[in-house]
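Protocol step 4 of 5: obtain the predicted structure for the target chain.
Materials: sequence only (see below). No template structures provided, no constraints applied. The aim of this step is simply to have a reference model before the mutagenesis design in step 5. Sequence pasted as it appears in the construct record:
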Amino acid sequence: MKKIITQILGVIFCAVALYSAPLQNVPQSIILPDGTTLECLASGDEYYNWLHDSAGYTIIQNPHDGFYYYAIKSGDTLIASNIKAGNNNALKRRGITPYLKFSPKKIKELHKTEFPTIKHFKPIPKQAKSKETTLQVSTSSALYNLVVFIRFSDSPEFTNTISTFDNMFNSISAVSMRSYYTEASYNAIDITSTFYPTQNSETVLSYQDSYSRNYYMPYSATNTIGYNGSGERASREQGMLNRALNAIAPLVPPSLNIDNDNDGCVDNVCFIIYGNTAGWSQLLWPHMWQLYLFNNTINGKYVWNYNFQLATYLTDGTGASVLCHEMFHTLGAPDLYRYDDSGVPVGPWDLMAYNTIPPQHMTAHMKTQYGRWITIIPEITSNGTYQLSPLASSTNNCYKIPSPNSSTEYFMVEYRKKTGMFETGLYGSGLLVYRVNTSCVDNGNMDGPPDELYVFRQGDSDSYINYANLSSDVGRTVIGPLAFSDGSSSGITISNIGSSGETISFKVTVPDVASQPYYPSDDETMVSRTPLLCWKAGNNENMRVQVSSDINFSSCEVNSVTTNTYYEVTEPLLGSVYYWRVGGVKEDNTINWSDYSTFTVVPANTKMYFCESFEGSSFPPAGWSNTIVNGNEAFEKVSTGTSPVCSPQSGTKMLRYNSEDLSASSKAQLLTPVFTCPLTADNTVKFSMYRDAGLQDYVDFLKVYAVTTAGESTLLGTINRNNQLTPVASVGWHDYSFAIPAGFSSNTGQIVFEATSGNGQNIFIDNIKIYGTIIPLGVPELLSPANNLANAELSGTFSFQSVNMAANYEVIVSKSEYFIDPVFHSYVTSGTLDYSDFEYSQTYYWKVRALNDLTTSEWSEVRTFTTKDEILPYTHIEIQALLQGLWDGMTHKAAAVIIEFRTGLILPISSLYARFPAIINSEGVATLDIPNMPAGNYWLVVRASGYLPICAGQRQAISPGATLEYDFSRSSTSVPSINMLSLYNGRYVMRVGELNGDKQVNSIDAQLLKNNSGTNASIPD
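Step 4 output (structure tokens):
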């Protein structure tokens, strides 16, 4: 029964607080003021950790007597009750509840103050100034990690064997940080660790600090030498690391490549501190940070990123797990748990949310985004059944499922299998489904919700996070519809999830997304009768494409199914206006149709001025004229014909001139609308006329004229009604065409059909067409920018050779050689076009074609050019600052300093903007080149190890690209001036600041200096 109760308590604790931090239930032995020992546990992360007993009741120290009591709420924080830790019987009677923590608001404040994020202060070596400064080191090839052992002044030497740590860091056959990253990165990165001080015995050799362990614990009634506040905590921690680095730096071989990414900084240093962790947000807790308070170098490389570890915690069997977590921070990954403990978005399914033993893999998203070990993720965009291999496999290990309903969020699936060296700590095997929010990338889940990564679980409760693995083995085979961060549904469902074998199968159902036609575009005129139709794919595998001259698609010229996103019409389209659409064929054979688009087909190289079959409701058609020249009748529209008997050549209508009932010499004229054809050649009028064999001696005929606005009339031809007269033909419909005179092309005119009665039979005509052969346009020749031009400016002029008869030119520019999503699309009337605001370091493709009212030329050749790299504006800072003891009046010994820039009107309460390391040369001058520094007024502060800081007497105006020179050695107005020592020659030097003999410069020395000088001026730490 006792075992069962323990398991139940474990589940409850897991459901409430287990995943709030990487470390859980770390044993603690606390010596109380009366000499007795309190055994308890610690949990949390570097920002917020706390003490508690095995039942989850929070324990806190009473600062007045030094004893530990059970905690109770007091506003946003906790205070000690009057029940001493260990007196469990009184807990329920007093109404004290377990799992008490600071409020989420207070925990977020600790996140901002305990370990300030240092993003812009990283030293920038000259060889890397053109690169963006980041915290991330290379995640590929070899990386050498330096491990430094440190013990306190009151600590004995480590009793652990060096092989214990060597196996923990470097083993290739057992669980270690090296073997973990080799597997997790699919052999992309190899992290090897070397140990310092140099190890020459079986047991660990360490650097011994000058201060006791209590010096690195918080101040209390029982620890009066402890630190007060986060500022003093940071200076003590980094002071210890600074001293250790100075001791071991000469021992690191110059041949060791400690700067894999060549950014001028040591890739990583891991400090292992003697002893165990300590609770309540104390310094002695594993974390990753940057050494920004000191200017340490090893073989010319700055020390920046470091991991801080506690030896006892590592050797209790949890070592590799926490080492891997902190190292992934160094590689650039954020945490995936929420710092305010407001929920459990990921739980045990990613190393950066919770550390299993042995360490589990990070998710495929983290490997892709921060490790860059997965370079291509296949996408699921249509319904279907898919398979995955385990995440530990280097191929077929994940899918991305985008949603058309969001541009910032998508979903991923991966198969986690509880097997192998590193996935045995998982709660089970199965498919893992999670959401990625790209707006939170680089921030992880620490400020969530929304979260960068959220793992779906059945029931969507934090208590079910252990059971997010889905498979038929565990009876969880469906999840969805998957929700976005705002709770809205994506419509995506994962179902039919199979068993956890060598692979796992699953079915994806995505919401229907219609394809969208994009070529030809709506209302486009096509010169090809067999056009290529293109559309943007939806999410159905089979697509039906239809082309019809009927808007209702009751009959179709094309009605085909394809799996492509294009369709080439093979049978020539004979009409003019066509409607087309595409539709995804769903599983039930229904079709998700797109909207229709229209296009018009004309013969290649043909300009159709008129194509009139007289089918419309009105007559004469708009723009046409129907006049009587002689007699009393004009042309009329009819459906059937008599004398002779005939039907329309096509359609249901035709024109008749009633010659049979009109006296001889009666005439009527049908005039086309006015038109021009200036850019065409071989202009032609074409029409159909019915010829019969009756009444040959009664000559009825039709004449065709071309008439210009200048009054010029040209007879194009005469057709007699009787088929035995010229031109002789058989009985029936015949097509006739006449060339329009060349001079007609330069004028505006009309074509006249003149019918003359011989009192014989009726004249019938149909289908009048006037067209011309288009004079093709030449292809523009591109002039500039030159092809394959490098280092092009962000603005300039496109130029190309003008083309005869072109009215304008279409210029298109894209980042894609296929001109998908153009970044620039314009029409101009000349051969030049200015452009501006292009991006740095971007390759562009461009082409041009000529156009006029009738035709379009072929596209020109495609040219490409690449814009220049961005040159960041650097602010040049030149400081003259002399250090006491290093300046002999002529030359200065080389010295490392830190130059700070602070903002605010008043120096003592100013805020730090940035600090940079620099070297004072033999002339006492230190220089900096700072990229992209915002313009403003800054307090200019110089610090050096062992010396009192100095500040310019007033704020200095700084702007990007400008130069600032400041001479502290001749400025008696520097504040606080007491920090400067005046020399005999009128020069000033920075005063050595070690005043109380404790071998360090700190706030105690500053206070002594103030007391002696009577000045209240101060510079913030």
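Step 4 remarks: Confidence is low (pLDDT under 50) at residues 1-21, 117-135, 1013-1017. The longest strand covers residues 680-691.
Proceed to step 5.
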